[in-house]
Write a structure and sequence with these properties.
The chain has helices at residues 15-21, 32-40; strands at 3-6, 46-49. It is of the alpha+beta class. Strands 1-2 form a two-stranded parallel ribbon.
């Protein structure tokens, strides 16, 4: 199990919106390292969303 730290700008995608959706996908990630890390995420991994 991996641990991840994820950041989103509140005006683009807030924690409240995430709670409403329950599940989402992230698109438009331009940083290659960030994109590769997102691809490595698996269900059951722990995530700190801020």
């Amino acid at each position: 199990m991996n641990h991840w730290l994820v950041k989103s700008e509140p005006f683009k995608y807030s924690w409240e919106k995430f709670n409403e959706d329950g599940r989402t996908f992230w698109d438009g990630v331009r940083n290659y390292q960030a994109r590769n890390n997102i691809r490595e995420m698996k269900e059951g991994d722990l995530v700190l969303f801020y």
